[in-house]
Amino acid sequence: MFGIADHGAFVAAIVLFLAIPGPGNLALITSTGKGGIRGGMAATFGVIAGDQVLMWMAVAGVAALLAAYPAAFSFVQWAGAAYLAWLGFRLLTAKPGGAPVLNIRPRQFFQQAVTITLLNPKAIVFYMAFFPLFVDPAHHQGLLTFGAMAATIAFLTLLYGLAVVLLTHFLAERVRASPVIGRTLEKLAGVFLIGFGIKLALSK
After folding, report:
1. Residues 6 or more apart from 22 whose CB is under 8 A from it?
2. Which residues, 6+ apart, have CB-to-CB distance to 1 below 8 Å?
3. How far is 93 from 107, CA to CA, in rounded Å?
4. For residue 184, how many other CB atoms are within 10 A of its CB?
5. What pTM was computed for the model?
């Protein structure tokens, strides 16, 4: 279909990758915890927008450019690591009930999710390596094939984000009844963000 080899396997691979814990998932969860369903869905669209930019950059050959200029890749990598660590630090140091990391307006949830997604240059290389695995050389249709892949990823991310947001919102209503649990989860999210930042900085 549209030059995609084994579309079912492609869909299964994307779902698996979406479920792997990472900054994007954490952004959805914390956005929903702070901004409810509107905040969580705004973050979901932010992740989708960021992914689309990275995917088309990969298609355009930006991965090859980053490989040719390691200094540029390292700069973006360290910028992303610093941003994640900064978010985690603000969660850890926030006063009870006053974590300032995620703001209330949906637009700001969207912007933060886009930033978190874009500041992971390794995703460009991932897409550059991932797409060819599912391109059927005999039926490849150029941009139409890559467009179908990008649309499939966006749709699956939307469904996955909706499920995560609804589940998080359901659980958040019960967590709010216990301020201690809420603060503990808030600090835990901060630790994970710092951990993701360190992992990104040290990855080669």
Report:
1. 196
2. 7, 148
3. 24
4. 12
5. 0.74
